[in-house]
Amino acid sequence: MARRNLRNDQWARIEPMLPGKAGDRGRTAKDNRLFVDAVLWIARAGAPWRDLPEAFGLWNSVYKRFSRWSNAGVWHRVFAELAQDADFEGSVLDSTIVRAHQHAAGAQKNGSQAIGRSRGGLTTKIHALVEGLGNLARWQLTAGQVHDITQAHDLIEGVPAQTVAADKAYDADALIQTLVQAGAEAVIPPRGNRRQTRDYDQHKYKHRNLIERFFCRIKEFRRIATRYDKLASRFSSFIALVASFVWLA
To answer: Which of 109, 168, 181, 232 lies 20 to 30 Å from 55 when distance is taken between CA atoms?
Structure first.
């Protein structure tokens, strides 16, 4: 029997969001729950698709369906619907480096597919914003050598946060001014070489560990801790799935 990754209450939450229901256009899904459990197994184990246990079905069929859903934006839509419950009273910005396996290189597509060279070899960087309870609200993928500050504006744009905490890498006048104009408090320690010093709330800064705990949580899934996917869109789909699973915890 296939291992169930989703509890009944978790499945009840996302079942209406998935395609393949009776009445939907296209083919009717035989077992969406078994399929989602199969993809979660791949995400947890970090195993090649060919190693998917037979109890989940034919690996090639599961892989093709995962790809179709990825191309159709299904995983991201599920995440977006769950993230509507975000509590932006206190938000946190940060990034984490993910080592890219050699199998992730060489995609026959335009662009770098968010893979670059940094300390440690081929890497991808996940830039993220988590909300006040430590759940993912937004993310961006870049090559590993890209500086954190480059993605900050896109991550916070339009977010009704009361405070935004981040480390010294985000200490830039333009970002702090953007936060102030949006009515948010910048909880960002000043860099040591800053000409004009400024204060920040050190007590609120302690909440920055929310994002560190989030990164630790998603990296329990080996498909996130190491990138095996050639296409950035596929890797991003795994992030959307795992982040949704964290929302449902």
So the answer is: 232
